[in-house]
Amino acid sequence: MTRASMTVGRRQFVTGALAGGIALAMPGMASAQGGLGLSSLLGRASDNALDKLAQPGAFYDDESIRIGLPIVGGLGGRSGGLLGSLMSAGNRLGVLGTITRDINDAAGVAAGEAKPIFRDAIDDLSFSDAPEIIRRKDGGTRYLRTSSNDRLHVALQPLVDGALERAGVYSTFERLAGEHAFIKQAGLDREQMNRSVTDQGLDGIFAYIGAEERGFRDNPLGGLGRLLGN
């Protein structure tokens, strides 16, 4: 095989493999092709995002997505409030120790287990308005959240519940509630804690998926683009 024919073969292969990404970068492409490309892109974006968040310390180390202590009655969490004040007092007393880090680590474990859940949700999207979605750099992520947030929340909750259990978060809160009145006053139970961590975890996951989608649209060919010039 000549060098010229090898070069043509590589170009054809790379062009075919990246057609979906190029379609997303060019809003003028047909809706059907854009929809197929968007599904492929979102799958890659969700996989990459969840892989990053599954790394030890990923949620806790990123202050923009760090999960706060669970919200009860609209108080607490990232925004502070009564529960946040109670828990901050507990932290100053050394009572809660590493509980916030444990919660964030549990969310990371759940994220690592959630890839099939997100893939299934993406595969079920219809992309009925693909051209409009394609025009926004995070349009696919926004559409996924609008279309599938409730479904993903329900599917993610058991993963979060198991991760919190294995991390000892539930048993720690139960023990501390029996020892310290200010924790008991917060009125936390297992269901509330799970729901709050799942809510905040989804916020972080979608933030990361959106960043991955924007990055891919800005550079759809990535490093493989260099092969086109060989």
Describe this protein with a few key phrases.
230 residues; 12 helices; disordered C terminus
| Helix-strand pattern | HHHHHHHHHHHH
Number of helices: 12
Main sheet overview: none
Number of domains: 1
User: Could you tell me the radius of gyration in angstroms?
Assistant: 22 Å
N-C termini distance: 16 Å
Helical percentage: over 70%
Number of strands: 0
Can you give the mean pLDDT? 75
Given as residue ranges, the uncertain stretches (5+ residues, pLDDT < 50) are: 3-35, 72-82, 223-230
Q: What percentage of the residues does DSSP assign to strands (E)?
A: under 5%
Q: What spatial form do the alpha-carbon principal axes imply?
A: elongated
Structural class: mainly alpha
Structure description:
With 230 residues, the chain is mainly α. It has helices at 3-17, 19-25, 31-53, 58-61, 81-92, 99-113, 115-123, 130-135, 139-167, 169-179, 181-185, 190-218. It contains twelve helices and no strands. Helix 6 crosses helix 9. The radius of gyration is 22 Å and the shape is elongated. It starts with a helix and ends in a 12-residue tail after the last helix. Residues 3-35, 72-82 and 223-230 have low confidence and may be disordered.
